[in-house]
Each structure stands twice: as C-alpha cells, then as structure tokens.
Write a structure and sequence with these properties.
Number of helices: 9
Structural class: alpha+beta
Number of strands: 10
Largest sheet: 6 strands, antiparallel
CATH superfamily of the largest domain: Outer membrane efflux proteins (OEP)
Helix content: 55-70%
Number of domains: 2
CATH class of the largest domain: Mainly Alpha
Radius of gyration: 40 Å
Length: 462
C-alpha cells in the first residue's frame, strides 16, 4: 500500500512539474515568437520585397515598346488624310535603340512630307548616342542602383529586426527582474507575518517588551508596501512585454498571470544570443550590416557620380533607318534611308559641374561616416566585452555577499530564539540581506542587458 501511495505521489509530482513547465515562457521561445510574428519584424522583411519591386521597375526601362499613332480626317464625303505611324522599339544596355516601323498615308490633302507609296513604307534602323548616354545613362543607372538596393535592403532589414529584438529582450529582462522581486518580497512578507505573530505571543507570555510589537509591525507594513509596489512594477512590465507577443495574422497576445520567466536565464543567455562566440579578442566587422549598408550607399552614390560625370559630355544622337516598301525587302537598296543627328551642348556646363561636385561631396561625407562607424563599432565591442567581464566578476562577489549576509541572518535568528538578541538587530540583518539580494537582482539584470547590448552591436538577428 505504501508503494502505491509513493508511486501516486511521484506521478502527481511529475504532472505538476509538467504543468509548471508549460507555463514557463523561456527566453529563446519568446525570441522565436518575436522573430516570426512581430509586425515590425515583418515590416523589416518588406524592405527586401520593395527593393525587388524597384528592380523590376528599373528593368522595365529596357522593355520593348509598341507605338502607334493614327490620324484621319473626313469632311463632306472627302477623305482629307489618313496617316498611320507605328513602330517597335527595343532599348539596349549601352543606350542604343533598335527601331522597326511601318508608316502609311492616304488622302487628297496629305502633306507632301507624309506622302508614301500605296502599300506604305517600312523602316529598320538604330539610334546611337555618340557622347552622353553611351557608356551610362539614366536607365542603366537606375538598374545598377536597384541591384545594389537589394543588398542594402538586406542590411537594413537586419538592423531594423535587431532593434526590435533588442527592445523585446530588454522588456523580457525587466519582466524577469520584477517577477523575481515580487517573489522575494512574498517570501519576506511571510517571514514578517510569522515573526509578528511570534512576537505577540512572546509579549503575552511576558518574555518580550510591548514595544517589540511596534518594531515587528513596522517591518510587516514595510514588506506589504514593498510587495504592493513591486507588484505594480510587475504589472507594467507584463504589459510592456505583451507589446512583443503576437500570433499569426497579426493577432496580439496578452501575458497571463500564471506565466513566469525562465529561471536560470543567466546560464543560457550567452548560448541563446551567441555572445559567448563574441567574447574573443578578434571580431571581424566587415560583414556587419551597418558597414554593409554604408558600403552599398557608397556604391549607389558612385553610380550617381558616374552619371553626373557623363553629363559633361555633349549629347549627340545619330540615327540611321533603312527604308523599303513592304514587298521589296528582298531587293535591298541602301540609297533609301533616313538619317538624323541631334546635338546639344551647354556652353558653360554650370548645372552639370555643380551636380558632379554635389555627388562627390556626398561620397566624401558617406566615406567619413563609414570610417567613423568602423572605429565606433570596434570601440563599442571592446567596451561591451570589458563590461561583461567586469559584471561576471561582480556577480561572483555579490553572490558571496548574499551567502555571508544570509549566514549572519540565520545566526541572529538563533540568538534571538535564545533571547540573546533583539528584534531590532534581527530586522537590521534581514534588511541588509534584502538590500544585497535586490542589488544581486539588479546586477543580474545588467548582465542580461549587457549580453543583449553586445547582440545588438553585432546586429546578427538570424
């Protein structure tokens, strides 16, 4: 019978433990929800989609085009004119445009310039920019920048996502700290209630003076106030954390009262955020999203500079089109053609030279920003590594102080039970222990925040 009883207790304890584990929201799971469902993270992913859409727009500048223009006039039963101009254009990479056309005109009042053979006239030719627009033009620049923009958007997505994950982490750490403070004050409130009842009993028996009840009552009321205040902070922390809890289809979640944070987070956070790999002395920042972002911005500005420099050249377009009636393509006669030359060249080039100088200034400014960002990142990483090492040492010292103060409180409780101490000394020992434990919770929170800060600096949310 006893074996069955113990087995029943063991089974109940397992079930209880499983239920408790189901209510724990560990940090890694929380980050998974934020990465997958948070609207701002999804918004960061849209940056890449927008860049791909811009690339499609830029490629549209090279799409072939069909054009048609038809004019007809009839009055008093007479056909004054009927004119059709149609063409098929193919833009190419180096600004060269291939064009095939068919023109037809009829009527008694057709302009002699538009007079064509009865079956119409076909044409095939090219237009070539000799100066400005041959090696680079607006279409080419837009396409190059759109391709670079995709890489830039990937870097920007990481920076935006890491900002959300960092703020979510701070909210989780704040929730954990306030939750621990509430549990701490609950335990000490129980101790204060037990002690207060014990003091009242000792006073009735004549073993303690009546003034001790006032001393014990002050501690009891203080603990109630501490618990109420920490409970308020916990409620606000839970609401702040709920801002980062979402489900699919943009459904927000609210943190329930029976959910608690990960207990031993200090032991797992370096593995979760992979900051243990970042504590080595040599960390490369060349693949950092911030560096990649600035380098891609430099590449886009360089394309703009080349386009502005090309505008200093004269604009001269030369076109040649072979003409033929539709039935005579087999009998080529290159004496039938149409040529055209278009030449534009501003004499002072003040607008073009000014635009080129502005493009160069933007490149210089971005290059200075890039150099500063490289140095700043290195210094931030070194500072964060130093901070983590220092906090790790402080945690060890504060843990020893907690143990020492706990022993002092236990010793004082034994002395008090033997009548060799006072309620004042006992409360002083307990206050010291509470104070150092709160300091320990604050230091653990700094340790967690410092890991999150290093995670943010490296900006690798994937």
């Amino acid at each position: 019978m006893k074996k069955i009883y113990f087995l029943f207790l063991f089974f109940c304890s397992l079930v209880w433990a499983q239920e408790q584990n189901l209510k724990e929201l560990n940090y890694n799971e929380f980050l998974g929800y934020v990465k997958k469902y948070h609207p701002l993270v999804k918004s960061a992913n849209l940056e890449i989609n927008q860049a791909q859409a811009n690339l499609m727009i830029a490629r549209g500048g090279f799409d072939p085009k069909i054009e048609a223009d038809f004019d007809q006039k009839q009055f008093n039963g007479k056909e004054y004119y009927s004119i059709l101009n149609s063409s098929f254009k193919i833009p190419t990479w180096y600004g060269i445009e291939v064009k095939a056309g068919f023109d037809n005109s009829e009527g008694i009042y057709v302009n002699p310039e538009n007079t064509l053979p009865n079956q119409g006239l076909t044409s095939l030719g090219v237009t070539i920019p000799i100066g400005q627009g041959l090696l680079i033009n607006q279409r080419m620049a837009d396409l190059r920048k759109a391709k670079i923009q995709i890489q830039l958007s990937q870097a920007e997505r990481k920076l935006q996502a890491i900002e959300v994950l960092y703020n979510a982490s701070l909210a989780y750490f704040n929730w954990k700290r306030n939750y621990s403070e509430v549990q701490l004050y609950k335990d000490y409130l129980k101790n204060a209630e037990i002690r207060y009842k014990g003091i009242l009993t000792l006073i009735k028996n004549g073993d303690k003076p009546a003034i001790d009840s006032v001393e014990a009552g002050i501690v009891l009321k203080t603990r109630k106030w501490n618990l109420e205040d920490s409970g308020l902070k916990l409620a606000k922390a839970k609401l702040e954390l709920s801002n980062y809890l979402w489900l699919d289809n943009n459904v927000p979640l609210e943190l329930q009262d029976d959910v608690f944070p990960e207990n031993k987070l200090e032991q797992t956070i370096s593995e979760t955020l992979k900051t243990n790999e970042l504590l080595s002395e040599n960390i490369s920042i060349e693949n950092h999203p911030k560096i990649n972002s600035l380098e891609n911005k430099l590449a886009i500005l360089e394309v703009d500079r080349k386009l502005k420099a090309n505008s200093l050249l004269p604009k001269m377009d030369v076109g040649y089109h072979y003409l033929s009636e539709p039935n005579y393509w087999n009998d080529t006669n290159f004496n039938n053609y149409k040529i055209g030359v278009n030449f534009i060249f501003p004499l002072f080039l003040r607008k073009e030279r000014g635009s080129l100088q502005m493009a160069k200034f933007k490149i210089q400014d971005t290059q200075l920003t890039l150099n500063f960002e490289r140095l700043q990142l290195k210094n931030k990483i070194n500072a964060q590594q130093t901070e983590l090492e220092s906090i790790t040492k402080q945690r060890k010292i504060i843990s020893e102080l907690v143990n020492d103060n706990s022993q002092m409180l236990q010793s004082e409780e034994r002395l008090f039970s033997m009548g060799e101490s006072s309620i004042f000394l006992l409360n002083s020992r307990e206050n010291n222990l509470v104070s150092i434990q709160l300091t320990q919770l604050g230091l653990e929170n700094r340790f967690l925040n410092s890991n999150a800060e290093l995670f943010k600096i490296m900006a690798n949310p994937d």
